[in-house]
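Model it.
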Amino acid sequence: MRERGLASWYGRMFHGRKTASGEVYDMFAMTAAHKTLPIPSFARVTNLKSGKSVVVRVNDRGPFHEGRVIDLSYAAAAKLGIA
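Modeled.
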């Protein structure tokens, strides 16, 4: 499955809270939230402007903002250069 669109990230406000998978959100882990991918699953996310790419483990649901495809942890977003 391929999707193209905006990625956002979530950090301090959610750090330490439970995710949809039941695990505690760690903004320094390589994780993400997606609306439909299975929990758990893995996804490759690429910044099309820089060519940087990361693999994240989907452990949560979201994003809940129109037009966004995936919510990344702070760590994943930082590696992509968007945080």
